[in-house]
């Protein structure tokens, strides 16, 4: 019996055994493919967006160092405390940008729902293990080392998840039932943020998601209903907090409120801009950073930019965000894929509108909302989430450049029932 098994084993030819084995990929081939992907020449839009982003981050590090040096010295006996921490956050964010930009768009799509669930779970955790900062409960303390603001990552997660959902419903975009789910996803995320009393972040998310759905093809009648609902609910949200009403009253009537409680930042922010004039007082020469403006390296860093670099420096920052929007718009126009278009639109709306709101607050065109200047203000969650989002856009442009450009498809639209009848 044993001899028969031995003979049968010998009877199998080496060629047949070789065919049954799975071919192995040499490590050198994998590494070569990786480096080819990393160092392959990309489009001008790719490098333009990357260059603007890197410049804004580097510029932000310089301005954070300048704005925070005095308060850091007083509080920690170290002028570089806040700036050093921001440098670490920038390094983490740039690693995230690089890592995400090398991912395939299909892989990002496959993880969009999981990312959304994780971000929603993290935002829910705020109500159990979160901490209050300036009256808002939207932060989680990590072992006393640093804090995380989950709402910043929730912005990216909702953009990806809503974009994925709408990309699977392209034939039914005239059906209101399709939009109900997209509205519910966005509204649930915004409600969690507002429950933590963070009106500024909630406002940015609202503008971003409504703009995304409008550009994605929401029917005009439904869009008008959504806007009407926002007009009705916004005053209720504002009146639910005495501090919010105080800020709005201070904005509408600066001389009629207690300046120490509600108007201090706005008033001194305008003084900083006025002191800068055209060319500024010089880098590091701000007077308002000497503890005159609370949290000056965060929400009011644009005031220090205006004071130290003048009107010229402030206009350069505004133009950089305009170029950033133009670059993303060009990337969006280069693809016909609905998911890619929606993601780029969402990221563009988020970063540009948040920059506009921040600058408008410093210019007293809006009440104080506590919104940071994207890619520039101090804050790890804001910087890392924004760089991750830019990484997704770069991944999309990387695929745009490697694939032949196709015309945007003409989609037959209607309700699900009407399309079934036509079929």
From TrEMBL:
Q: Tell me where it resides.
A: Cell membrane
As its record notes, the protein acts as a catalyst of: [GlcNAc-(1->4)-Mur2Ac(oyl-L-Ala-gamma-D-Glu-L-Lys-D-Ala-D-Ala)](n)-di-trans,octa-cis-undecaprenyl diphosphate + beta-D-GlcNAc-(1->4)-Mur2Ac(oyl-L-Ala-gamma-D-Glu-L-Lys-D-Ala-D-Ala)-di-trans,octa-cis-undecaprenyl diphosphate = [GlcNAc-(1->4)-Mur2Ac(oyl-L-Ala-gamma-D-Glu-L-Lys-D-Ala-D-Ala)](n+1)-di-trans,octa-cis-undecaprenyl diphosphate + di-trans,octa-cis-undecaprenyl diphosphate + H(+)
A Gene Ontology biological process term: cell wall organization
Question: Matching InterPro entries, A to Z?
Answer: Cell_cycle_FtsW-rel_CS (IPR018365), FtsW (IPR013437), FtsW/RodA (IPR001182)
Q: Which keywords are on file for this protein?
A: Cell cycle, Cell division, Cell membrane, Cell shape, Cell wall biogenesis/degradation, Glycosyltransferase, Membrane, Peptidoglycan synthesis, Transferase, Transmembrane, Transmembrane helix
Where is the major localization of this protein?
membrane
Q: Transmembrane ranges?
A: 46-67, 87-107, 114-131, 143-166, 178-195, 201-218, 225-243, 300-326, 347-369, 375-396
**Record pathway:** Cell wall biogenesis; peptidoglycan biosynthesis
Q: Which GO terms describe its cellular component?
A: cell division site; plasma membrane
In residue numbers, the region (Disordered) covers 401-423
* Molecular function via GO: lipid-linked peptidoglycan transporter activity; peptidoglycan glycosyltransferase activity
Uppermost EC category: transferase
Catalytic activity, EC: 2.4.99.28
Q: How does it sit in the membrane?
A: Multi-pass membrane protein
According to UniProt, the name of this protein is: peptidoglycan glycosyltransferase
* The species this protein was found in: freshwater metagenome
């Amino acid at each position: 019996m044993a001899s028969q098994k031995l003979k049968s084993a010998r009877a199998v030819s080496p060629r047949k055994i070789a065919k049954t084995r799975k071919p192995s990929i040499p490590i050198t081939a994998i590494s070569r493919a990786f480096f080819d992907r990393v160092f392959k020449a990309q489009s001008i839009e790719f490098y333009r967006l990357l260059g603007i982003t890197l410049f804004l981050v580097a510029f932000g590090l310089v301005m954070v160092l300048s704005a925070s040096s005095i308060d850091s010295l007083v509080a920690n006996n170290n002028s570089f405390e806040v700036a050093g921490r921001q440098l670490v956050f920038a390094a983490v964010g740039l690693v995230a940008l690089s890592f995400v930009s090398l991912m395939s768009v299909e892989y990002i799509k496959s993880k969009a729902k999981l990312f959304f669930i994780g971000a929603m779970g993290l935002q829910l955790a705020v109500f159990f293990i979160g901490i209050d900062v300036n009256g808002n409960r939207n932060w989680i303390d990590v072992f006393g080392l640093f804090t995380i603001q989950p709402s910043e990552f929730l912005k990216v997660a909702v953009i990806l998840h809503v974009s994925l959902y709408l990309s699977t419903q392209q034939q039914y975009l005239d059906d209101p039932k399709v939009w109900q789910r997209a509205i519910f996803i966005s509204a649930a995320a915004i409600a969690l943020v507002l429950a933590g009393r963070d009106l500024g972040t909630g406002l940015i998310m609202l503008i971003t998601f409504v703009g995304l759905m409008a550009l994605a093809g929401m029917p005009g009648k439904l869009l008008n209903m959504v806007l009407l609902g926002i007009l009705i609910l916004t005053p209720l949200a504002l009146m639910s907090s005495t501090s919010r009403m105080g800020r709005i009253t201070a904005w509408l009537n600066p001389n009629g409120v207690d300046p120490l409680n509600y108007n201090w930042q706005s008033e001194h922010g305008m003084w900083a801009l006025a002191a800068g004039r055209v060319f500024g007082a010089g880098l590091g020469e701000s007077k308002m950073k000497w503890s005159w403006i609370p949290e000056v390296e965060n929400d009011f860093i644009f005031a220090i930019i205006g004071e130290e670099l003048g009107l010229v420096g402030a206009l350069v920052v505004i133009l950089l965000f305009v170029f950033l929007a133009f670059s993303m718009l060009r990337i969006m126009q280069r693809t016909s894929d609905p998911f890619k278009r929606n993601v780029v639109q969402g990221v563009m709306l988020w970063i540009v509108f948040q920059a506009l709101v921040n600058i408008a607050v410093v210019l007293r065109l809006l009440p104080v909302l506590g919104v940071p200047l994207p890619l520039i203000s101090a804050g790890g969650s804001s910087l890392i989430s924004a760089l991750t989002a830019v990484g997704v856009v770069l991944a999309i442009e990387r695929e745009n450049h490697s694939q032949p450009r196709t015309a945007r498809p003409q989609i037959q639209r209607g309700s699900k029932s009407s399309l079934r009848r036509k079929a």
